[in-house]
From TrEMBL:
Statement: the UniProt record of this protein carries the keyword NADP: no
Catalytic activity as recorded in UniProt: L-threonyl-[protein] + FAD = FMN-L-threonyl-[protein] + AMP + H(+)
Sequence similarity: Belongs to the ApbE family.
InterPro entries named among the record's database cross-references: ApbE, ApbE-like_sf
Annotated Gene3D superfamilies: ApbE-like domains (3.10.520.10)
Cofactor note: Magnesium. Can also use manganese.
Protein's UniProt keywords contain DNA-binding: no
Enzyme Commission number(s) of this protein: 2.7.1.180
Residues annotated for Mg(2+) binding in this entry: 170, 288
Name under which the protein is recorded: FAD:protein FMN transferase
Organism: Pelagicoccus enzymogenes
GO molecular function list: metal ion binding; transferase activity
Cofactor: Mg(2+); Mn(2+)
């Protein structure tokens, strides 16, 4: 028996899934994780295409429901509420993400720090403000930041100071992109492009082209592209920049990406950093870390991560690592 609620869900999924006869590609579109999500994939079997779409939307929904700090009902919000008060029981999946945070914090020399929310929130670009945060406010916020402060024991986690806050936003969307790409493989899909708000993972190639073509947005003219990339063998692409999310005060622009070592928004002349890497997660965290580090130190970071290539874009020039050009579509 099919319940009315099941029929409504089925109609909802079908409305999200379309098929492009010309390109021979399915397109799944939905909203999640605060952005537009799109999955392009090639598959001859429509029932399997529907089953994959169901599974992808469901997985992302569960992930967001569990780890979004914007949802009061999430497990992450419970951890944050109990900061300075008590330990919180977490499951194996949550512990896996905390272990992943260890690796990403090390890989980015501390720039990827899920405990950085006190500083990030202090500089929230969406606030209406007449003055900048004071040095005292910045000092207090900095004192609450530090991944090494987070206490863990099997099945539990504890934030030892009131005001501490975890946020997986620095890598969660990219992690989800890679997981959906992995889910596609489980459903026998070898040619796929997963795009969650321009965080991308590709598999194989599209039926109508020898490569997936990905445009890079021009930070000096948002909404347009300044170049395109061609990915032939899979991998991830991500861009970090502050040209969309920022505020202006006293004639100076302050972006949303915070240098946690200083407590202030990054101001090194960069507008965006685009990275191609083996996964979307790697591309995303490296692009943010490189944006903070700047072209010279950022290039060194790329050199230390095999297979990662980057392009650093400023107002007047751009700089590419040694093999980034191999991905650029030649006009």
């Amino acid at each position: 028996m099919v319940l009315a609620s099941d029929q409504a869900y089925r109609k909802c999924i079908d409305s999200r899934l379309s098929f492009d006869e010309g390109r021979r590609l399915y397109r799944l579109q939905f909203q999640a994780l605060g952005t537009a999500c799109s999955v392009l994939f090639a598959l001859e079997d429509r029932p399997r295409a529907i089953a994959f779409s169901d599974a992808a939307v469901e997985w992302v929904g569960v992930f967001e429901g569990k780890y979004s700090r914007f949802l009061d009902t999430s497990l992450l919000s419970e951890v944050n509420r109990k900061a300075g008060e008590d330990w919180v029981q977490v499951d194996e999946d949550f512990e896996h993400l905390l272990a992943l945070c260890d690796d990403l914090n090390f890989m980015t020399h501390g720039q990827l720090d899920p405990s950085g929310m006190p500083l990030i929130g202090l500089w929230d670009y969406r606030r209406k403000r007449s003055e900048l945060p004071s040095p005292e406010e910045i000092s207090v916020a900095k004192s609450l930041v530090g991944w090494q402060k987070v206490q863990r024991r099997p099945g539990e986690v504890f934030l030892p100071e009131k005001g501490m806050c975890l946020d997986f936003g620095g890598f969660g969307k990219e992690y989800a992109v890679d997981k959906v790409a992995g889910l596609a493989v489980e459903y026998g899909i070898g040619n796929c492009l997963v795009d969650f708000g321009q965080d991308i993972h590709v598999l194989g190639t599209p039926p109508d082209s020898p490569a997936w073509h990905i445009g890079l947005e021009d930070p000096t003219r948002p909404g347009t592209t300044w170049t395109g990339l061609a990915l032939l063998q899979g991998g991830g692409v991500a861009t970090s920049g502050d040209y969309h999310r920022n505020f202006v005060l006293g004639g100076k622009r302050y972006g949303h990406i915070i240098d946690l070592s200083t407590g202030y928004p990054v101001a090194n002349g960069l507008l965006a950093v685009s990275v191609v890497a083996r996964s979307c997660l790697e591309a995303g965290v490296l692009s943010t870390a490189a944006f903070v580090a700047g072209p010279e130190r950022g290039a060194e970071l790329m050199e230390a991560n095999f297979g990662a290539e980057a392009c650093f874009v400023s107002e007047h020039s751009n700089y590419q690592t040694s093999r980034f050009y191999e991905y650029v579509v030649q006009s």
